[in-house]
Amino acid sequence: MTIEDDIAFLEQVPILRRLGEPALRMLAIGAESRDLDPGQMLFAAGEGADGAYIVQRGSLNLKPQRASDGEVVAGPGTLLGESALLAETIRPATATARETATVMRISRAMFLKVLEGYPEAAQRMREVIAARADQWARDIENVRAAFIRGNEPRSP
């Protein structure tokens, strides 16, 4: 793939699209691609995460630490470990290739340098994160309200 192909690919990832072309160019230059064989593990649940992966080709099974959460399949364009781009975190699931797959790795250090170098991209990222936090707060309030309504005494 050329740098232009990588930029076009990164533009397909919703949160990254917001960064703009100059920032995506830097990410594309610094990203690393990795091929996986079927059954090969990319990372294990509980490991420290120092960056994110984007599935470019093929698919991966994501198996969370808690078996009750069930497996998820991640296909092309899926960003794995988004929060690890900004902060230290651990992998909540084990990722294993279902078939021959290719992933693009973006390290936290690289992502933060891009945000430092492109303040307008950093501002757009802040807006995305703030909007998500607002939505999470509304969702939590809705769950709380539903819980309270469900626990109110019922009339006979």
Helical percent range?
A: 40-55%
Order of H and E elements = HHHEEEEEEEEEEHH
Query: Helical element count?
Result: 5
Question: Major sheet: order of its strands?
Answer: 1-10-4-7
Question: What would the principal axes of the Cα set say about the shape?
Answer: globular
Radius of gyration (Å): 19 Å
Kindly describe this structure:
This protein has 156 residues and is α+β, with helices and mostly antiparallel strands. It has one domain (3-118): Jelly Rolls. 42% of the residues lie in helices and 26% in strands. It has five helices and ten strands, in the order H-H-H-E-E-E-E-E-E-E-E-E-E-H-H. The protein has helices spanning 3-10, 14-17, 21-30, 108-117, 119-151; strands spanning 32-36, 41-43, 48-49, 51-57, 60-64, 72-74, 79-80, 89-90, 93-97, 101-107. The strands form three sheets. It has a four-stranded antiparallel beta sheet with strand order 1-10-4-7. A four-stranded antiparallel beta sheet has the order 2-9-5-6, with no helix packed on it. A two-stranded antiparallel sheet has the order 3-8. Helix 1 packs across helix 3 (21-30) and helix 4 packs across helix 5 (119-151). The relative contact order is 0.19.
Brief descriptors of the model:
156 residues, alpha+beta, Jelly Rolls, four-stranded antiparallel β-sheet, 5 helices, globular
Brief description of this entry?
Helix content is 42%, strand content 26%. With 156 residues, the chain is an alpha+beta fold. The mean pLDDT is 91.
